[in-house]
Amino acid sequence: MSSKALRLGTRRSKLAMAQSGQVADAVSQVTGRPVELVEITTYGDSSREQLAQIGGTGVFVTALREALLKEEVDFAVHSLKDLPTGQPDELALAAVPPREDPRDVIVARDALKFTDLPPGARIGTGSPRRMAQLNAYARSHGLDIETVPIRGNVDTRIRFVRDGELDAVVLAAAGLNRIGRGDEVTDFLSVDTVLPAPGQGALAIECRAGNTAQDAYLIAALGELDDPFTRIAVTAERSLLAALEAGCSAPVGALADLPPRSAPFERGDPHADGQIVKEMRLRGVVGTTDGSRMVQLSTTGPVPETYDQAMALGRELAAEMLAQGAAGLMGERAQ
Question: Residue 119 pairs with which residues in a beta bridge?
Answer without folding.
Answer: none
